[in-house]
Specification:
The complex is a heterodimer. By secondary structure, chain A is an all-alpha fold. Chain A has one domain. Chain A contains ten helices and two strands. In chain A, strands 1-2 form a two-stranded antiparallel sheet. In chain A, strand 1 and strand 2 form a beta hairpin. In chain A, helix 1 crosses helix 6, helix 4 runs antiparallel to helix 5 and helix 9 runs antiparallel to helix 10. Chain A is elongated, with a radius of gyration of 22 Å. The relative contact order of chain B is 0.09. By secondary structure, chain B is mainly beta. In chain B, the strands form eight sheets. In chain B, strands 5, 6, 7, 8 and 9 form a five-stranded antiparallel β-sheet that branches. A four-stranded antiparallel β-sheet of chain B has the order 1-2-3-4, with no helix packed on it. Chain B is globular. In chain B, a hairpin with a 6-residue loop joins strand 28 and strand 29. Chain B has a domain of 143 residues: Lipocalin. The chains are: A mainly alpha, B mainly beta.
Chain lengths: 252, 374
């Protein structure tokens, strides 16, 4: 289903690989950066919506206490509050749904360019863009990185390759923690519990996945998390700077 | 909007994503990891048939023995590579998937008694996938592996005699001539190695990966590469004699007959070239992708090519026109084998996985598994 996206990303990966002196990890890193830039507007919107959701959490809890027995009225009041505050409760879901084909496409691209098996390579041979002359002969990409085979899952023969899924977990967890604003109000509220679950479940899911598949994917997930944390840092710093300038102007 | 759904959607998406990610690769236990291959020696067809090695009578496709006898009881993994056969041994490799999250898959070379199928020895020293078969000569079994190494094993006991490390996956069958092993690697080198020690005699480098067995004629090796080129290389010195630029990757081995070299690229372009100069004699296109190489009839009267569309094509060597086509369900991704007036093919994904056809007209003689009417 995601093969056309995978073929497209694979050809981009080949171009980057050629441009970056045939360095596989660098090519994966740059492709990851480009993809993250592509979805940046959505990412920022989702982060903004998430932040607002947290800010209005006490108001939501007040509504829950007031209309606890009247679900229909509660739902109406909540939607009214979201509308007034400009919150899209499904915003994060939309981002995840859009990112999923991108994930699968990039996973496919890495599998095609650093194949662990011949059938994938043969399939990809029919979809290399011949009008990109510099990519002829590039496949398969150089697959060794720090003694690990990027096209194979972590193995005991290269025991240090298990550090990559752990790194995936750690960076993904940090990213979740950083990008999810702390909940206000009752720390035992459902929202707080949901946040805590997400902060563990997503990183665990990624780690589980990267334990089974090519280590090249661990590189992608790790770099992706680092890029998103860097994005958040620079955007947040810009926002904080704007806020303090605004306060400075008010005082003067 | 329902309150509980709004609170639970992140978990629902996480669970769905986890399921999708798992399913995207986790069905791999039942899926082939490569094409299956076969060889014909004397009156028997030796074929890797995924769950088993099949040994069939060439006359009627009757099963002579299998390994393992019952794959439901003794799981030995999936068998892909073309078996190597000599007077006493059948040597094949299988892939055994990992049993759990932190366990490793196993890549096992099996040496079996040619008469009975009993296991003589096994070798598990390689960490990558075996894609193509090995070759037997001088008491040694030589095989390349996806971990980048070429392994030389003692045929009698399975001891590792030497290992040669290349820079990338070795997915090609070696050609052994006298005391020299010629083998291509995806590190873009064709190597000539001493058979007894594995020392490099010479290496020939190109811009494309090698994934096929070279063919030797009059001291010249012919081999295709993933840089869309077919090369003629001096077998003694490793120097290039000529290079032909095709339109796509050359993956399967070329065929040589008289003074012509015949080669197929993965897009289905078939080329006939002058063996001495590399000049094009003719060029035809099949309407299918071609993974395996070309084989010739024993009298040189026909060329045979298998396609991804499941069709086996017989071509006229003088001009490349199609003489006959034999269609089947599945994909022909490994080279067929000609023995006398019969051609044998292995099919991937088909309900009939091994077929024997008449060389003259492509009429089916038998198929395995046999159809219910038989």
């Amino acid at each position: 289903m995601f093969d056309p996206i995978a073929y497209f990303f694979a050809n981009i990966l080949l171009l980057l690989y050629d441009f970056l002196g045939q360095q596989t990890v660098a090519a994966i890193a740059v492709l990851t950066l480009l993809i993250n830039l592509l979805v940046l507007p959505l990412t920022l919107k989702q982060q903004q919506s998430s932040r607002k959701m947290q800010e209005f959490q006490p108001e939501i809890e007040k509504l829950q206490k007031k209309y606890g027995n009247d679900k229909e009225r509660l739902s109406q009041e909540q939607m009214k509050l979201y509308k007034e505050a400009g919150i899209n409760p499904m915003g994060g879901c939309l981002l995840l749904i859009i990112q999923m084909p991108i994930w699968f496409g990039l996973i496919g691209a890495i599998r095609y360019c650093i194949p662990s098996g011949p059938l994938e390579l043969f399939r990809f041979s029919q979809h290399i863009y011949k009008w990109l002359p510099s990519v002829v002969g590039l496949v398969p990409l150089q697959s060794t990185f720090l003694g690990m085979d990027l096209g194979q899952p972590p193995s005991s023969a290269q025991w240090w390759s298990y550090s990559l899924p752990i790194l995936v977990f750690a960076t993904s967890w940090l990213q979740q923690k950083l990008l999810t604003p702390p909940t206000t109000g009752d720390s035992e509220s459902q929202a707080a519990m949901m946040n805590r679950q997400m902060q563990i479940m997503m990183p665990l899911m990624f780690m589980f996945f990267t334990l089974q598949y090519a280590t090249g994917l661990s590189i992608y997930f790790t770099i992706s998390s680092l890029i998103r944390m860097a994005q958040y840092y620079f955007v947040q710093r810009g926002r904080d700077s704007d806020k303090s300038e605004g306060k400075g102007k008010k005082k003067s | 909007m329902n309150r509980s759904w709004m609170k639970r959607w992140p978990m629902a998406v996480v669970v769905l994503a986890a399921l999708a990610l798992s399913v995207s690769g986790c069905a791999g236990g039942a899926r082939p990891r490569g094409w299956t291959g076969l060889t014909v020696v004397d009156e028997s067809v030796y074929a890797s048939d995924l769950e088993q090695l099949q040994v069939l009578d060439t006359a009627d496709g009757r099963s002579l023995w299998t390994f393992p006898k019952d794959p439901r009881e003794e799981q030995r993994g999936t068998f892909h590579i073309t078996p190597a056969v000599d007077e006493e041994h059948v040597i094949v490799a299988s892939y055994i998937p990992s049993a759990g999250l932190l366990s490793q898959p196993r890549h096992v070379v099996w040496a079996l008694d040619r008469e009975t199928g009993n296991t003589l020895w096994t070798f598990e020293g390689a960490s990558g996938q075996y894609v193509e078969g090995g070759a037997l000569s001088g008491g040694l079994f030589i095989i390349g592996n996806g971990d980048g190494n070429v392994y030389a094993l003692d045929v009698e006991r399975g001891n590792l005699k030497w290992t040669f490390e290349t820079g990338h996956r070795v997915w090609a069958t070696p050609l052994i001539v006298s005391e020299t092993v010629y083998i291509g690697s995806m590190d873009r080198h064709l190597y000539a190695l001493d058979l007894s020690s594995g020392e490099v005699q010479w290496s020939f480098q190109t811009k494309g990966a090698f994934a096929s067995e070279p063919v030797l004629r009059n001291g010249t090796l012919y081999i295709g590469a993933f840089d869309n080129s077919l090369y003629a290389v001096d077998a003694q010195t490793g120097t290039e004699q000529w290079r032909f630029a095709g339109e796509n990757w050359f993956w399967g081995s070329p065929a040589v007959y008289d003074d012509a070299v015949y080669a197929a690229d993965v897009k289905g372009n078939i080329y006939a070239l002058d063996a001495d100069t590399g000049e094009t004699l003719w060029h035809q296109s099949l309407d299918t992708a071609v993974r395996a190489g070309i084989v010739t009839a024993e009298d040189g009267s026909k060329l045979f090519v298998g396609g991804e569309d499941g069709t086996l094509y017989a071509l006229d060597p003088s001009d490349g026109f199609t003489l006959w086509m034999a269609e089947a369900e599945g994909q022909v991704l490994s080279p067929p084998v000609v023995s006398g007036s019969v051609i044998y093919e292995a099919l991937l994904y088909g309900s009939q996985r091994i077929r024997a056809l008449h060389v003259d007209n492509g009429r089916e003689i038998w198929a395995y598994p046999p159809t219910p009417e038989e």
